[in-house]
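INPUT
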Amino acid sequence: MAQAIDVVILGGGVVGCSVAYQLRRRGVTVMVLEPGAIGAQASSAATGLLSPYKLLGKPDDPYLALQRASLALFPGLAVELEELTGLSVDYHQTGCIRLARIGQAGRLEAWAATWRSHGVEMAVLQGEELACVEPALSRAYQMGVSIACEPQVLAPAYMATVARAAVLCGARLVADCQVVAVDRDGSRVVAVRTAEGGVIACGSLVLAAGAWSGLVGHELLGLRLPVTPANGQSLQVRQPGRALSHILFGEGIYLAPKTGGRLYVGATHEEIGFTPTVTAEGTARLLNAARLLVPGLDGCVVERSWAGLRPATPDRRPVLGTAPGWENVALACGHNSFGVLLSAITGTAIADLVTSGSLPDVARPFGLARFGSSSSACYTNRRHDLSA
Ligand SMILES: Cc1cc2nc3c(=O)[nH]c(=O)nc-3n(C[C@H](O)[C@H](O)[C@H](O)COP(=O)(O)OP(=O)(O)OC[C@H]3O[C@@H](n4cnc5c(N)ncnc54)[C@H](O)[C@@H]3O)c2cc1C
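OUTPUT
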């Protein structure tokens, strides 16, 4: 017998589960269908940095506005999720230091002053000041920008907590379930069909299949969705004798101190297909850069290495909004290197789209139309009357 549900979400990563959680808070029935294990892909491979302030990034960039809107949701959301589930997301206001080139001082001062005028705590540190704030840093680095407000979570813990919260609110998260086809009525998806022969009738569909979204969108919905996999490798090492207290960005990598004396070193970027892969070259590159930043890491023990597939797009920005040619399909994919950070705003924005038919202003610049596809003018959801 066919089941009926308001919204089916394809993909059980942090994006799919965040959308499920926000939809349940709005009273919508929701089912997440995941071909593997819930949260086992990129979302658990992430470092968990919530760091939008790229050096000299343009303050009026709509992408920065989206990231900042998501960042602003995190402190409250972290508490809400922890209270609901009894789990910890390991949210810490660690703050970061972005190392800068000598000679950039004037531009950095002006950039930091602009942000300070928006209430963001930033300081340009030079020479001894920098060494005092982060004594483990190599003396070869003489300038950096300290950004106190950039926090982090432990990504696997955050992933597990969002998934648990969605379930506690009544979402159904179904692992090991492959959708092989959709049934349509004109420009509406009316049901999905699973490999086991199940038929799930739905009022709406959300595509949140991470790095697989381009493939899935093409195969099930006939979409041209430029989302492809970008392999990212990371390492876990022990903190050096003089432990780092900030997240450090420099030499094309970052170092993120975690609880329990762990230090994450991330991350590489390779386009090598759909298999997450750790390579000797990637490990060596991360370690060499880490040792340049912090000489105390010479001879450090590598405790763990892993890889995940970022959902990459040509402009490195997400795809949010209605799928072209469909009235009731929402796209929530292409989050590149910021999917954990952006999961909070994506959850609320896509839940708004499904329930009210429109995205909040901050998410509007990220439609698929920017790549040349025309987007459906409006989104219409029809709820299923489950008692019928
Ligand atoms: C090494 C590394 C470090 C990172 N660090 C950070 C960081 O510090 N901060 C940050 O914000 N982001 C970071 N990211 C990026 C972040 O991990 C991703 O942007 C984010 O996890 C994407 O979430 P997602 O739910 O879209 O994808 P995923 O977590 O990959 O989930 C997508 C799910 O879709 C499923 N799927 C596949 N095929 C189908 C199908 N046919 N039907 C249904 N579902 C399907 C997959 O099995 C998967 O479970 C990092 C990524 C990597 C690799």
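end of record. The radius of gyration is 21 Å.
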